[in-house]
Amino acid sequence: MSFTEKANRVLRFLKGKKRHKTAAVILAAGLGTRMKGTEGQTKQLLTLNGKPLFMHAVQSFDASPYIDELVLVVRREEYREVRRILKGYRLKKPLRLTVGGDTRQASARRGLEAISDDMEYIAVHDAARCLITPDMIADVVTAAHANRAASAGSPVTDTIKQVTKDGYVEKTIDRSTLFRAQTPQVFECNLYRAATYAALDRKQTVTDDNMLVELIGQTVKMVDCGSENIKVTTKEDLTLARIILRMREEK
Ligand code: CTP
Ligand code: MG
Q: In terms of DSSP H, where are the helices of the chain?
């Protein structure tokens, strides 16, 4: 990053900081069923470079000057264990621990309910995206300030085919318009609250938080966060995460 870019970021931060209080809701209440071979341990508690996976995201949000408070959403069964782990780390921001629900959507709702009343923006993040950096958080939060809603993502690099149910290629989709959605996804609190309760009323299920606000007609600004912000889903992803962390250390 050039000096000018850095200076602009600091200026944006100074401007933004005064106006928008932002809570980070970190979702770590899943079962990690696709992470095979780690019986008895959900993926958020697996060790990555000497600390539990969920701590990586917690520390990145804690280090971000754009974030004012942290809400960590965990499984009821892991609440005490997580609380014990947290005692071993010194965090700069207040962290509230809360219990999640049966689905990611329900856990995000619990997170929303746990943030402080004076928060203006909410950044919803999957703890499984443990390689998130403060720079990426800054990019998405500032885009949300300008657009009410913004999402981390990365442009699709593969050629994408639409296929029939029995697996025959029907057509090639123009990939220049395609992004993979990542987290954090950052929204103005009132917008996100309205979208969450509208979906609840209509019993709509969504696979990410962008969809919630899309469903009430809000456009979401997509922010390219590159290919390192992976979601750890399988054991192979955990290996990849270790490699990316090693590369960062070497840099
Ligand atoms: N999550 C959550 N509450 C749930 C389900 C998921 O907080 N009821 C969180 C996970 O902890 C994870 C993120 O949402 O950080 C994304 O979910 P995913 O990667 O699917 O994780 P799991 O649901 O734990 O894994 P799996 O689907 O393989 O069981
Ligand atoms: Mg899941």
A: 3-19, 53-63, 79-86, 104-114, 134-147, 189-201, 209-214, 235-250
Ligand that lies nearest to the alpha carbon of residue 27, given by its number in the listed order: 1
Peptide bond before residue 65 is cis, with ω within 30 degrees of 0? no
5: pLDDT confidence band, cut at 50, 70 and 90?
A: confident
Length of the chain: 251
How far, in Å, from the CA of 238 to the mean position of ligand 2?
Answer: 16
pLDDT category of residue 38 using cuts at 50, 70 and 90: low
Distance CA 174, CA 32 (A): 33
Q: Which of 34, 60, 104 to mutate to test the pocket of ligand 1 (most atoms within 8 A of CB)?
A: 104
Average pLDDT over residues 35-61: 91
Average pLDDT over residues 217-224: 97
Which residues line ligand 1 at a C-beta cut-off of 6 Å?
27-34, 43-44, 73, 100-104, 107, 126-128, 231, 233
